[in-house]
């Protein structure tokens, strides 16, 4: 019996070794110049699928010898998990048009990404296209492992009918300062115009702070990231003001502590929502909405307000054999023409300089989107640092405990989280 | 006879005979399942133990990284993390509520459904439906029932808890435990229904002749008669309960409020998969396996003991 078990172990070990014995991406220099067929993944929302299909068709029509095969990102709990698994398995596609900036440091650590600076004119292409914003996407080693692709600058949508019902001016709502937002919220709830003034997801996923604390923090600080120069920035006066504002919203039951199934804004349960322009397609014909920048404590003018970018980028993955083709496809897909088509089909903002003037015709025809184009010039990204997701989860845990559930003083919670974040950011 | 003659002659089996054993056909039948178990259970478990003792993270094929042996460092990190300790405490609370409730309700309902009652088939199907329905779908219904303005609080009126069930630090885990009990009840009722078919009718008649009523018959005939099933139910409820993930992930929005309903598997997922620290995730997993084994052994000793 021992012999049988031993043989079985040898057979298994042999087969597993055979499975894991590939040499991966091979010679990187040769791969950087290699051309041929490649695979790309894009997001699964209908608008981006439509854009992706036309982009691939346009490329394939002109490059019969370098055919692009495209598909939606396979289903999983999140795109990031699927991509992480694909990197480990060695079957990631050449390009993914939905790479979350928060995951880039992790994918980079896994050896899953190709630095784009290595291609001829790579750095110049990225920086010429996106301008100063591009620098936020540099990794700590000074290289670009992602091309800043598109943003969804987060702003405050409001329901004009609910505002009118509460006796508020639906065309010029008082939402500039924290005091104004609180007063407006109290009117909305006390008049029963909506059950809650606003309904940011109160759940504990690491990314939820991107849609409550972070946009207001970006605005309050004039564009600071959560971590800068390896140190947490949020345990500051500005951070405390933002945390205290949201604490009041929860304590006064103007925002809900409970998870909502569905869209509270569309359902009329909440009169406001913190969201980017991707949502316009969802709200159209369902809600008479307006949009304003996120508030600041002092009521900064709109043209000084920063917000969270909610960007998704394009990255090249190390399993790619024909990287020469992948780089050309990347440039083709982010060209002025394709960015214009992307804007037209999805309403999301290409992360390129002067979006508002480059596509002036589009914004003349679609005035709803003009505000977002203006805001797109002042966006803040998640910090591109090691342990990015652990940092966000650490922050979220502290925020959830103190701001949402009021079980700890908000200032003490931010101080505690900042200490942990400093340690995490210092790790390589 | 010939086999005895061969054995008696002292002939040793050949290499093939030694590999295939005394019953080659049996070995052939068993091998596919052994391979399956080794590939999808034993190898990953062994690999998880390996990861938990190394500075390990997943990499692309061909990436050259160091994965040094770190001894018990990952275990120290895990055990000194209040979130992990709380998750283990939470799952104990869950098991203390879920396992006894599962046993009591499933044995009681199975006994009722085994007797000649009207609409028996309808009830049997009704109890089984939640078990075969996807958690994602049922969670939506429970969110509707247990939110602040949900049906349960409407019925309770002024007695409704504030904060409401799923955002209440004290009540969140018990609510999850009750949800899981309800959802899995159908399966455990089925186990008891099968066990009840093996309890002799003669025993009930004898108890009746001795003057035992329904309750005494239940206690003195049914409960001892289905003890093997009870052992199985306790072990299965413990193992599935300790692996709790979907409910805190979906029902309480990622183990909320403030980690009050986080389970070890949820934390393992957050740290191992989301945050890219599979070594830490593996250490949590190994501790969970050890804990569940110890618990299962204790249960086997107390619930499954022979009279």
Can you characterise this structure?
The complex is a heterodimer of chains A (428) and B (307). With 428 residues, chain A is of the alpha/beta class. Chain A has helices at 2-19, 28-33, 46-62, 79-89, 101-109, 122-130, 160-165, 178-190, 213-221, 237-251, 264-267, 280-283, 323-333, 336-346, 355-358, 360-365, 370-375, 388-404, 410-426; strands spanning 38-42, 68-72, 95-99, 147-151, 155-159, 196-198, 227-228, 231-232, 270-275, 289-292, 307-308, 312-316, 349-350, 379-380. In chain A, strands 2-1-3-12-4-13 form a 6-stranded mixed beta sheet. In chain A, β7 and β8 form a beta hairpin. Residues 1-26 of chain A have low confidence and may be disordered. Chain B folds into 2 domains: 13-52; 74-302, MetI-like fold (Orthogonal Bundle), CATH 1.10.3720. Chain B contains 15 helices and no strands. The longest helix of chain B is centred in the N-terminal third of the chain and has 33 residues, at 82-114. Chain B is flat. The two termini of chain B are 41 Å apart. Classes of the chains: A alpha/beta (428), B mainly alpha (307). At the A-B interface, α1, α4 and α18 of A face α3, α7 and α14 of B.
Detail the topology: elements first, then pairings:
The complex is a heterodimer of chains A (428) and B (307).
Chain A (H helix, E strand, L loop, with lengths): L1 H18 L8 H6 L4 E5 L3 H17 L5 E5 L6 H11 L5 E5 L1 H9 L12 H9 L16 E5 L3 E5 H6 L12 H13 L5 E3 L14 H9 L5 E2 L2 E2 L4 H15 L12 H4 L2 E6 L4 H4 L5 E4 L14 E2 L3 E5 L6 H11 L2 H11 L2 E2 L4 H4 L1 H6 L4 H6 L3 E2 L7 H17 L5 H17 L2
Parallel strand pairs in A: 1-2, 1-3, 6-9, 11-14
Antiparallel strand pairs in A: 3-12, 4-12, 4-13, 5-9, 5-10, 7-8
Chain B lengths: L1 H8 L5 H6 L3 H29 L20 H7 L2 H33 L5 H13 L2 H12 L4 H6 L15 H25 L4 H9 L4 H12 L1 H16 L3 H5 L13 H11 L3 H25 L5
């Amino acid at each position: 019996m021992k012999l049988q078990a031993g043989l079985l172990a040898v057979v298994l070990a042999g087969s597993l070794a055979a499975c894991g014995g590939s040499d991966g991406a091979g010679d990187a220099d040769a791969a950087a110049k290699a051309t041929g067929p490649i695979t790309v993944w894009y997001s699964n929302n209908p608008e981006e699928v439509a854009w992706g299909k036309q982009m691939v068709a346009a490329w394939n029509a002109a490059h019969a010898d370098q055919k692009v095969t495209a598909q939606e990102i396979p289903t999983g709990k999140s795109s990031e998990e699927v991509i992480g698994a694909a990197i480990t398995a060695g079957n990631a596609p050449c390009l993914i048009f939905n790479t979350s900036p928060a995951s880039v440091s992790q994918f980079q650590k896994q050896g899953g990404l190709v630095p784009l600076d290595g291609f001829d004119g790579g750095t110049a292409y990225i920086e010429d296209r996106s301008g100063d914003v591009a620098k936020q996407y540099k990794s700590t080693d000074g290289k670009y492992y992602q091309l800043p692709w598109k943003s969804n600058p987060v702003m405050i949508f409001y329901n004009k009918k609910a505002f009118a019902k509460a006796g508020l001016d639906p065309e010029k709502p008082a939402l500039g300062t924290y005091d104004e937002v609180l007063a407006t919220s109290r009117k909305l709830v006390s008049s029963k115009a909506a059950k809650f003034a606003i309904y940011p997801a109160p759940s504990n996923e690491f990314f939820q702070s991107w849609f409550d604390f972070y946009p207001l923090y970006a605005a309050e600080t004039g564009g600071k990231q959560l971590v800068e120069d390896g140190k947490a920035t949020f345990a500051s006066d500005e951070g405390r003001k933002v945390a205290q504002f949201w604490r009041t919203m929860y304590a006064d039951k103007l925002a809900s502590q409970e998870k909502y199934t569905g869209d509270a804004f569309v359902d009329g349960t909440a009169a406001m929502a913190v969201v980017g322009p991707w949502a316009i397609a969802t709200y159209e014909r369902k809600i008479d909405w307006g949009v304003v920048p996120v508030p600041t404590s002092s009521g900064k003018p709109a043209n000084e307000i920063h917000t969270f970018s909610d960007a998704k980028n394009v990255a090249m993955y190390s399993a790619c054999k024909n990287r020469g083709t992948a780089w050309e496809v990347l440039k083709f897909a982010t060209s002025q023409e394709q960015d214009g088509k992307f804007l037209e089909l999805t309403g999301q903002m290409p992360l390129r300089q002067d979006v508002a003037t480059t596509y002036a015709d589009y914004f003349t025809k679609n005035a709803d989107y003009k505000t977002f184009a203006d805001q797109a010039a002042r966006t803040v990204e998640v910090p591109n640092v090691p342990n990015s997701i652990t940092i966000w989860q650490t922050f979220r845990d502290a925020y959830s405990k103190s701001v949402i559930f009021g079980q700890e003083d908000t200032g003490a919670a931010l101080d505690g989280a900042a200490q942990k974040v400093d340690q995490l950011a210092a790790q390589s | 006879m010939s086999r005895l003659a061969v054995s008696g002659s002292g002939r040793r089996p050949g290499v093939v005979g030694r590999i295939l054993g005394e019953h080659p056909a049996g070995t052939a039948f068993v091998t596919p399942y052994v391979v399956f178990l080794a590939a999808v259970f034993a190898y990953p478990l062994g690999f998880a133990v390996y990861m938990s003792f190394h500075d390990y993270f997943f990499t692309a094929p061909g990436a050259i990284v160091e994965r040094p042996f770190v001894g018990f460092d990952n275990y120290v990190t895990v055990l000194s993390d209040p979130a992990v300790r709380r998750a283990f405490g939470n799952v104990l609370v869950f098991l203390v509520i879920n396992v006894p409730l599962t046993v009591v309700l499933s044995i009681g309902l199975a006994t009722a459904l085994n007797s000649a009652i009207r609409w028996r088939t309808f009830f049997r199907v009704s109890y089984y439906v939640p078990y075969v329905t996807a958690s994602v779908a049922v969670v939506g219904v429970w969110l509707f029932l247990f939110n602040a303005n949900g049906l349960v609080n409407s019925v309770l009126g002024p007695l409704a808890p504030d904060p409401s069930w799923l955002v209440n630090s004290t009540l969140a885990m018990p609510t999850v435990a009750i949800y899981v009990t309800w959802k899995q009840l159908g399966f455990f009722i089925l186990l008891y229904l099968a066990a009840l078919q093996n309890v002799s009718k003669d025993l009930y008649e004898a108890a009746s002749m001795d003057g035992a009523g329904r309750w005494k018959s239940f206690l003195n005939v049914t409960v001892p008669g289905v003890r093997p099933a009870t052992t199985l139910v306790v072990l299965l409820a413990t193992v599935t309960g300790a692996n709790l993930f979907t409910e805190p992930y979906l029902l309480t929005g990622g183990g909320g409020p403030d980690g009050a309903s986080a389970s070890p598997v949820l934390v393992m997922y957050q740290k191992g998969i989301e945050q890219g620290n599979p070594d830490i995730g593996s250490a949590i997993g190994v501790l969970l396996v050890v804990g569940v084994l110890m618990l299962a052994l204790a249960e086997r000793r107390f619930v499954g003991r022979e009279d």
